[in-house]
Amino acid sequence: MNISESAENYLEAILVLSTQKPVVRSIDVVNYTGYRKSSICVAMKNLNTCGLITIDPEGYIHLTEDGMKIASMIYERHQVLSEWLIRLGVDEKIALEDACRIEHDISRESFAAIKKYISENR
């Protein structure tokens, strides 16, 4: 499934929030991302329509199996790329920002090579 970079970021945010909170609501995503409530509302509706999240009657957001696959992939890429850039000597704040941009565009092959390199050089 091809989804937008912003959708991937929202899914990653929901995943991160779900590890920090017992339940995730739209307002939590607003606070985490800093985006307007109206933008998050539209995004959550679109993710729900695509079958990547569910929203229960109480407004709690849950990743579907497909949503979890995408969120986990993006989160792993973010973690690995951040670590790699920091090891290369990039300032942590810059590394985190750059990893967020790179994680959406890097090929599977390149990411696998970076991941392998990091694990072999720990």
Topology:
Layout: H1 5-20, H2 26-33, H3 37-49, E1 53-55, E2 61-63, H4 65-87, H5 92-102, H6 108-120
Antiparallel strand pairs: 1-2
What is shown here, in short?
The protein is mainly α.
Protein architecture, described:
The N and C termini lie far apart (33 Å). The longest helix has 23 residues, at 65-87. Helix 1 (5-20) crosses helix 2, helix 2 (26-33) crosses helix 3 (37-49) and helix 4 crosses helix 6. The protein is elongated. The protein folds into two domains: 5-69, Arc Repressor Mutant, subunit A, CATH 1.10.10.10; 72-120, Iron dependent repressor, metal binding and dimerisation domain (Diphtheria Toxin Repressor, domain 2, Orthogonal Bundle). 69% of the residues lie in helices and 5% in strands. It is built from six helices and two strands; from the N terminus they run αααββααα.
